[in-house]
Amino acid sequence: MSGTDTVRHIDTGQEMTRFARGWHCLGLAESFRDGRPHGIDAFGTMLVVFADSDGQIHVLDGYCRHMGGNLAQGEIKGDQIACPFHDWRWGGGGRCTLVPYAKRTPRLARTRAWPTTEVNGQLLVWHDPEGSAPATELIPPTIEGFDEGRWSPWQWSSVLIEGAHCREIVDNVVDMAHFFYIHHAYPTYFKNVIDGHTASQFMESKPRPDYTPNPEKLWDGTYLRSEATYFGPAYMINWLHNDLGPDFTVEVALINCHYPVTHHSFMLQWGVAVREMPGLPADNAAKLAGAMNSSFGEGFLEDVEIWKNKSPIENPLLTEEDGPVYQLRRWYEQFYVDAADVTPDMTTRYEQEVDTTHAYELWQQEVDRNMAARKTGIR
């Protein structure tokens, strides 16, 4: 056997030909209730989002079925979106309700209306190449206390990621080690649970003092407890418990979501809300949520630099500390095949806890070296 026969080659996979079946968040619902139509590039096409006089939000295909006018450049008239080209009026259900200059409206004048729902103050749209209606149990859950106003307003951000498929961000669910190298924390506990249409990550971690501006302010118990679950292929709720001091825990909800624009780009969105707590005024909670939004945004952008410059890889070479990458990808595949082709191994419950002991010991040595170098001014 020659030396080249033992070389591990990267399989970059096949070109994607469809977008995931499932609920996708388009943004904060209230941002679409401003009396204007909004164009959204998603799923290889363009959507138009608008609210009717009752505040009900509708999503239609963005191009008029008459002559292809861009409905997002039109205006809302009554409860319809009016095309800027010839003023054809389209209702939220997808039917053309009026052609102002014509004796009669064509009976077959219909466009695609996308199923929508609102959860946690966000607008979600259902996508399925087979055109199925979404089952109720697939709708992501409401964060406890959100509808009762026990959370600060969302601090919301978005960024277009070009040159990468959205599976890259989903892979992070099982990637324990990247939290140390990319996000400057080290996990002390890490577990994944894959079950049905959900994939969860349970993690406890500490901040890296060698990447903390004032490490002396960290108390021994400072750490983060995190429970993050993808509900379907594109919408994650991350419950974060930040222990900032003895008997002082800040409860944070982080939404991590995305929708595909093309097969090589996606819109990444994230929002942060802080749960009300005694002694924390509402305006301070909003400021804290804003600061955390910026912090998480910095972390996401660190991921982005990796995604934009890495190779797609279908056959990653793994160690036991890398977590259930193949099992997660098998789970993720269920959203890219016809419903009839979903197999039990895509949805059967699977659990795996990654032993962080060995990695933690080595990481602690690296941190100690960096801290010693910082004291002597040598990095």
Automatic annotation (TrEMBL):
Pfam families: KshA_C, Rieske. SUPFAM superfamilies: Bet v1-like (SSF55961), ISP domain (SSF50022). GO terms for biological process: cholesterol metabolic process; lipid catabolic process. Keywords: 2Fe-2S, Iron, Iron-sulfur, Lipid degradation, Lipid metabolism, Metal-binding, Oxidoreductase, Steroid metabolism. It comes from the Bacteria. The keyword Cell membrane does not apply. The keyword RNA-binding does not apply. InterPro entries: Cholesterol_7-desaturase (IPR050584), KshA-like_C (IPR045605), Rieske_2Fe-2S (IPR017941), Rieske_2Fe-2S_sf (IPR036922). Its cofactor is Fe cation. GO terms for molecular function: 2 iron, 2 sulfur cluster binding; metal ion binding; monooxygenase activity; oxidoreductase activity, acting on paired donors, with incorporation or reduction of molecular oxygen. Residues 23-125 form the Rieske domain. Homotrimer. The two-component system 3-ketosteroid-9-alpha-monooxygenase is composed of an oxygenase component KshA and a reductase component KshB. This is Rieske-type oxygenase.
